Each structure stands twice: as C-alpha cells, then as structure tokens.
C-alpha cells in the first residue's frame, strides 16, 4: 500500500520508494536504497526540515522492521521522480490556443493603447450579484430544483403543455457547453441513432463536444457566402437526405457565428421535414433575449417543436443573457412523450452526471433562480436585456453608416440584417490578420466580430481598419 505524505511517496514490498530530496543526481538507485538516515545526514542530504525529519523517522522504522522490508526491497528512482532528467511528459506537444478563446489571450499580450477585442463578446447585467447564496452545501446531482423548473418555463413558455404534463426533465449543468455535453453523453448511451448533424458553419466547439461524447458528426448546409444569408434549399436537401432518426443540432436563435436565423415560416418548414423523417432536434439556446430583445420571441423556434407534442432536447446558457459567464450556469432539458419516460430519462442523466462532476455549483443557479422567481427582478432583467439588444442593433447601424461614409467597396447590408451578438463580416483570414497587425483589432480568423465589444468611440477605428483591409488585402 503506498504511504503518501508531503512530496514523498513511499511504497512497500516490490514497489519503489522515491523522494526528491533524497536525490544525489549521480547516485544509482541501489546505492540510494542502501542509504540510511545517519549516512544521509553525513552526505548532506539529511536536512533538518520537518518533512525530512519525518522521512528519516519513517526510514528508520522501515529498516528496523524485518517484516516491512526484506533484502529485495529498495529505494529507487521511479520514472516520475526527480532522479530522471527527462519528464515522463516530454513527448507531449504544445496544443494550439482555442480559435475563439485564444483571441483574448493574444489581445491581452498586445501593449497597444488602441487595441480592440472583438473576439468573445462581453456585456454584463447589473443584476449579477442578485441572490448571492451563502449556502455552500452540495446541490443534488440534477442541481437546484427551483432553477430547473424556472429554466424550463423560460425556454418552453409558462403555459407549455409539456411542462404541465410533466413530460420535461431539466437538469442544471455547467453553462451551455456542459449542457450540450451532458445531452450528447446521454444520447450516445441511450439513443439508437448516433449521428448528429450540425450546421455549416457552427460554433467551433460543437464538433468537439459531440465527437468526444461518442457521436458521429456530420454537417448540413446552412450559410450561403454569396448572399451572406441562409442557404435554405441546401439545408432542406441535407436534412432531407439524413438517415431517419438522426440528431440535428439547431441554434435556437442568433446563430453563431453567422448571425443568420431562419424566418418563422422557414422554421415551420424545417419542423415539418424533421418530424416527417423522425429527426431528433437538439436546440442550443445560448442567446435567448439577445437576438430580438424579447425572451419569448427568441424561444419561438424551440416552442414550435414542443407544440407538436414531439420530443426534443434543449441546452440553455445564462452566460450571455444574465452576464453570468464565469458562474457556469445552464440547463439541459429533454422533452419526452410521457411523464414516465421523462422520469426514467432523468434517472439516467444522473448516472451520466455523477461520474463527470457529481453535482453542479450552487452560486450562479441561485442568482438565476432569484431573478426568475421574483416579478420585479424579472422585469428589471427583461428591460436590461432589451437595452443590450438595442445597443447591439445601434452598433450595427453605426458600423454600416461608417463604412458607407468611407465608400468601402462591397455590400455591407448584412451587418444590419444579421442578428445577435456577432457579425459575420465576410472578411477573410488574411484581412483579419492584417487588421490585427496594423490596427490591433482582435477577432476570430473567420471574420466574426462581437458587436458587444464595440462602442460609438471605437466604431471609426474599426471602419478604418475594414476599409483598409478590403482595399489593400485580397
Ligand atoms: N453555444 C453557442 C452557440 C455559443 O456561442 C456558446 C459560447 C456556447 C454554446 C457556450 O457558452 P457557455 O458554455 O459559456 O454557456 N460561445 C462564445 C464563447 C460566446 C466560447 O466560445 O466559449 C463564443 O465566443 O463563441
């Protein structure tokens, strides 16, 4: 049995002993094995620190106890000890920065006073500190019950028949990412079709989340670079030829990165096609309230798929709409055909969650529950949300005006037409690199800019940069 204390790891019988402080570099392990504490102090390795004293006492004890150490026992360098010059991890190659979160890493390193970060959006609600929780106990595996109930109401609507009929199971998860991952793990284990179709393009983390959960990822056409709008026919064709039962990832609103959403009529056509083929919708709702400024309008797509009594999954994030980015608060809901199925599904979700992180954090969920529960706080929140959505729309107009004034070549009307936090500018990666190098403007290499990172003061700087990029870099 290994005995462990401080930086020492001592094992008995046929196992190695090692201690970084016992390491005269050139001494071989056999010699080290023979070292006695009294010898060690003479060789200068028996320091008088408390830890070393404890080690010496232990070694004395082991050497005087025949049953615990026989002639074959030894103290030797284990492959993970300080005796070796090479790390056991020396073969590990440096991984690349994340294409989205790495933008902020690069931005932070830039000393320029005019630098501008349009990579990841940032905009916070002033309600952030509401409902501070002083309770620090474990939550149940599925999270805060009140939070779950209120989250389901928020996305499916207060009058949702699925909620009334207890056909929805909701579990609190680690923001949007965690909700997607838990849903994906559940599907990989319990759903008969393991192929998921994701839009092309989509949020860069989607393929990784689903692949690592064990699903096979395929894509469906979504964005048309020529019109900078929806490739509706391509979408219908691709979903139409997907195998029956396949899972389809849909952005509930404010599609990331394109800012292009289907109209309600188009959603209805998508719903009909998916239901006729038995495709399973998995909604990613990371921006409810941000697309239109209305929480209800932004959940319309999801509610259409629940109103037909069919089944679906929905991952919710409170990172953006409540500004709770670092609190990691979100929810996964699975709408089922019956209450009995829903409760069995919940029992299996618990088995997925328990070995991953046991239970979710309490603080953020109690903030959300406090806001959703209280009529005044809820109203205040919706007013803030509307103001934030309006501010983004105003930034879109200011940027589009600034480009028109400069006579920047090209059609920039998509800046105004697109929805949500991001504008998919259409700038290519060379133009993006140019803007970063010459203008210290940071964005993802696909040309996506976060409108929330922009202000009236910085619009002219961005417009100058875009103008220079499109007129000088092809
Ligand atoms: N789904 C979509 C479509 C998203 O854009 C994001 C976040 C998430 C889920 C997950 O967010 P959460 O886990 O923080 O709740 N996308 C960001 C951040 C805002 C990121 O990449 O992590 C983005 O810049 O695209």
What does this structure look like?
It is a single chain. This protein has 474 residues and is an alpha/beta fold. Helices cover 42% and strands 13% of the residues. It contains 17 helices and 15 strands. The protein has helices spanning 29-34, 37-42, 50-63, 101-109, 145-156, 161-164, 175-190, 206-213, 232-240, 264-277, 300-307, 339-357, 363-373, 375-406, 414-417, 429-439, 459-472, and strands spanning 3-5, 8-10, 116-117, 168-174, 195-200, 216-221, 223-224, 229-230, 247-251, 280-285, 312-317, 329-335, 422-424, 441-442, 448-450. The strands form 5 sheets. Strands 4-12-11-10-9-5-6 form a 7-stranded mixed beta sheet. Helix 8 links the parallel strand 5 and strand 6 (216-221). Helix 13 crosses helix 14. The longest helix is centred in the C-terminal third of the chain and has 32 residues, at 375-406. The chain is globular, with a radius of gyration of 29 Å. It starts with a strand and ends with a helix. Ligand PLA is lined by residues 100-101, 120-121, 175-177, 203, 205, 251, 256, 284, 286, 317, 319, 330.
- Give me the Rg, rounded: 29 Å
Q: What hetero molecules are in the model?
A: ligand PLA
Distance between the amino and carboxyl termini: 66 Å
Biggest sheet strand line-up: 4-12-11-10-9-5-6
What is the overall number of helices? 17
| Mean pLDDT over the full residue set | 86
Largest sheet: 7 strands, mixed
Low-confidence runs (pLDDT<50, min 5 residues)?
1-47, 67-71
Total count of strands: 15
State the helical fraction. Answer: 40-55%
Shape: globular
